[in-house]
Design goal:
With 424 residues, the chain is an alpha/beta fold. The protein contains 7 helices and 28 strands. Strand 20 and strand 21 form a beta hairpin. The radius of gyration is 31 Å and the shape is elongated.
Length: 424
Amino acid sequence: MSVPEQMIGVEEALSFILSHFEPLEPETVYILDALGRVLAEAILSDVAIPPFDNSSMDGYAVRAADTAGASPEMPVTLRVVADVPAGTVADTPVGLGEAARIMTGAPLPEGADAVVPVEETDKWTNTSQAPRGKGATVEVFKAAKVGANVRQAGRDMQPGELVLTTGTLVRPAEIAVLATLGHSRVQVIRRPRVAVLATGDELLDIDEPLSPGKIRNSNEYSNAALVARYGAIPVRLGIAHDTVADLTAKIHEGLAQSVDLFVTSAGVSVGDYDVVKDVLKAEGEIRFWKVKMKPGKPLAFGTIQGVPLLGLPGNPTSSMVSFEQFARPAILKMQGRTKLTKPTVEAILDDPLRRTDRRGYQRVIVCQDENGVYHAGTAGLQVSGYISAMARANGLAIVPEGEGTLPPGTQVTVQMLDWPEVEK
């Protein structure tokens, strides 16, 4: 079942597509495999972090009151009663007029309430000669305040404290928190499996020599790379020829691999062979649209036996631009991501950009001048069948529909291709 092709806006198409997606189910993974994934569980601390008072630098653990009035001209001399490397616990408390040599991260000895950095003692120029063990002395050149250079137990995290909420995007910092709390495994939203299929009798695989009338299959590889870039697992189905049997077999191959989304390229525009549309219609419910954007007007979306299918245009740049606008947000939503829009900047045009009756996504190179102002210059020929400008571009200038040309000096919004969606 389908509806006739209609011209719709980008926002209307995206809203309809996203309404068919929800976050996938969670799975438990090793913490390093959680990087870039979304937490499906809340993380509470079951211990105090730090677990004990410890020194934030190399120096001497002291009683702050014993250092009162210390200066380079009138140093305070303390007797060293212990040596406390990191990973050990002092067996001797620090008493009146005493100090313990201490390393960064080592537990503060009983009786001490501050740490004097080694730089503020008479041993700072040659720490290898710093006093060790009972009977040695150290001269302190600056008075210490209570708590100085001490990391207090529980100051970072308290037992029972909610540290990471469900829905948090796991970055290296979150990995550090999980490791600190002893979580070697964690629940995250699983990665979507996305079937990638290119259609067309004119296509050759990239290892095949060119022959008359044939072109290499770049769309399968660019779309698979985009799938992987945005955190999903590409399931490459290869090339489907323009026959009912071949295309149907490819679709069933994807269904057999438990994919969560089909991304196809070509076969959805007005001039394409009816066999592609006929097969898609026969296998599920598909809508064919003309979207008010350039490049990327032809688009198809629907379901195949309950699995969403997004049909992208066949021209290489059209396919990639359409992927960024429609497939990328859907893939992110399945992973539990909430920020689905690409970052944008306001940039000054250095080159003219032509307007049309559709919203343009023109390939540009964005840079900043010495004043921090963004500028956008064309990345090359704005032809949907060419790919080199897309390779040079780091942004898509969003050109409002209309007549004429945007002259240099015009401010435009640019969608930044290489900047990640920011969750927080």
